[in-house]
Amino acid sequence: MPDGVSPESGDAPRDVVESLVRQGMAARRAEQADEAMRHMKAAVALARFGEDPVALARALHGQANVERDMGRTRAALDLYLEAVPLCRRGDDPLVHAHTVRHLGDVLREMGELEKAGRCYAEALALYRADPAAPPLDVANAVRSTAILCEALDEADQARLLWREAHDLYREAGVEAGVAESSARLGRLD
């Protein structure tokens, strides 16, 4: 447990959990999977003692991302499945949108296309309803939905989504996203 916070006290402030999640994310970006997992598991353990559903959801989401990085799809799925209902009870629509989108990605990868589609619809509705949603986050959700549409042989819908993703990636300054969406549009046309 981090210094000054004990499970006995019931004190699991969001900022301490967030600090652990940020440390885990930094380790993940540095490709230090074991270090990332250590921080995320600590965040989850600490958040379980609190009464903040968003803090627990963020920690579960973070651990799920690391599980995916490590190729443990089933473990990631279980964590996302635990996190999504917490997000629905919480007060952060962007955390909710991110979590349900990642759940959709795992379901799509597992071949559960109908379930993935429901997740993407929920995520896109949340992102589009929030004027503060960063274009990159919206673009990533649109991208996931476009990939699903391609898998379902819904070429017209996929084209519309790839065009939207292209514009959002351009707005966000993410050239890799612009290039991918252009290439996907080229294959669909």
Q: Give the overall shape, derived from the CA principal axes.
A: globular
Question: Count the strands?
Answer: 0
Secondary structure: helix percent: over 70%
Element pattern in H and E: HHHHHHHHH
Number of helices: 9
Mean of residue pLDDT? 93
- Spans of at least 5 consecutive residues whose pLDDT stays below 50 are 1-11
| Biggest sheet architecture | none
Distance between the termini: 55 Å
Rg, rounded, reads: 17 Å
Class computed from helices, strands and strand pairing: mainly alpha
> How much strand content do the residues show?
under 5%
Question: How are the SSEs placed, and which strands pair?
Answer:
Blueprint: H1 14-29, H2 33-47, H3 53-69, H4 73-89, H5 93-109, H6 113-129, H7 135-151, H8 155-172, H9 175-188
Helix pairs in contact: 1-2, 1-3, 2-3, 3-4, 3-5, 4-5, 5-6, 5-7, 6-7, 7-8, 8-9
Structure commentary:
- With 189 residues, the protein is mostly helical.
- It is built from nine helices and no strands.
- The chain has helices at 14-29, 33-47, 53-69, 73-89, 93-109, 113-129, 135-151, 155-172, 175-188.
- Helix 3 runs antiparallel to helix 4, helix 3 (53-69) runs parallel beside helix 5 (93-109) and helix 6 runs antiparallel to helix 7.
- The longest helix is centred in the last third of the chain and has 18 residues, at 155-172.
- The protein starts with 13 loop residues before the first helix and ends with a helix.
- Residues 1-11 have low confidence and may be disordered.
Brief sketch in words of this structure:
The protein has 189 residues and is mainly α.
